[in-house]
């Protein structure tokens, strides 16, 4: 384990940023039949499947077409409680809507680290096409537009990232109870993604069985560093 962690550290350009979060709410997966339709400009720009030139790359990258979106909202302190209430009301509605192609996998607010910040994780099972259609679905719904306008006034800043999962992780699942989560981000040296993924895949089984439980590890495709 120590040797593996040493190899992981060697490929880092910058050590981890770490924030401790508590859940706003969690949701169970809802199965929605997805209309096939045509491909969007977003899908054409970014291929649905990443072609891996080597076996190592193939093991590192996921075989699924899943795309994750991580939303980060910096909330004005005076609106934090109101923001939580609105999010808990509207996000499950979006999740359950047959018109919306994504699913919310979890929502958290920060307890230590960055303050007055909320983090939401969405999953799109039909890849980048679902990301494009999600915006169309929200803007086409009057009630959702009103929710977004109200939320805008509560935020100091907001950003999002599009991410892909590593092949050695499954999808994150809701957990019972009031849990505490740690969110980390690592900046890797250029060209070390494969080495990082292969070594981390070896390290994960060694961590299991302790008090903490891993949720997921994702690699950023688009968006600012967190």
- How does the helix and strand content classify structurally? alpha+beta
Low-confidence stretches: 1-15, 27-60
Between the first and last Cα atoms, what is the distance in angstroms?
A: 27 Å
Q: How much helicity do the residues have?
A: 25-40%
Mean pLDDT across all amino acids: 71
**Quick one: biggest sheet?**
7 strands, antiparallel
What is the fold-level CATH name, i.e. the topology?
Alpha-Beta Plaits
Beta-sheet strand percentage? 25-35%
CATH class equals: Alpha Beta
Rg computed from alpha carbons, rounded to a whole number of angstroms: 18 Å
Order of helices and strands: HEHHEHEEHHEEHE
CATH second-level architecture: 2-Layer Sandwich
Number of DSSP helical runs: 7
Shape: globular
Number of domains: 1
Question: Strands across the major sheet, in which order?
Answer: 6-1-3-4-2-5-7
Number of strands: 7
Short description:
The chain is of the alpha+beta class and 226 residues long. The protein has helices at residues 2-10, 41-45, 55-60, 80-96, 128-139, 142-152, 193-207, and strands at 12-25, 67-75, 102-112, 117-124, 155-165, 181-188, 218-222.
């Amino acid at each position: 384990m120590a040797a593996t962690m040493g190899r992981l550290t060697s490929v880092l350009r910058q050590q981890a940023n770490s924030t401790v979060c508590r859940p706003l709410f969690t949701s169970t997966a809802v199965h929605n039949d997805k209309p096939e339709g045509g491909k969007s400009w977003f899908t054409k720009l970014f291929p649905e499947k990443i072609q891996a030139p080597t076996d190592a790359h193939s093991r590192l990258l996921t075989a699924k077409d899943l795309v994750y979106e991580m939303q980060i909202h910096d909330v004005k302190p005076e609106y934090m409680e109101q923001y939580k209430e609105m999010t808990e009301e509207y996000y499950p509605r979006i999740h359950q809507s047959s018109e919306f192609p994504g699913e919310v996998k979890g929502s958290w607010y920060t307890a230590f680290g960055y303050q007055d910040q909320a983090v939401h994780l969405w999953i799109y099972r039909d890849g980048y096409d679902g990301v494009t259609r999600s915006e169309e679905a929200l803007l086409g719904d009057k009630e959702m537009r009103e929710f977004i306008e109200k939320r805008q006034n509560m935020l100091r800043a907001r950003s999002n990232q599009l991410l892909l999962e590593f092949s050695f992780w499954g999808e994150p699942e809701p957990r019972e109870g009031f849990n505490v989560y740690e969110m980390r981000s690592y900046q890797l040296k250029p060209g070390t993604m494969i080495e990082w993924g292969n070594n981390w895949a070896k390290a994960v089984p060694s961590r299991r069985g302790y008090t903490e439980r891993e949720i997921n590890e994702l690699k950023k495709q688009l968006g600012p560093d967190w």
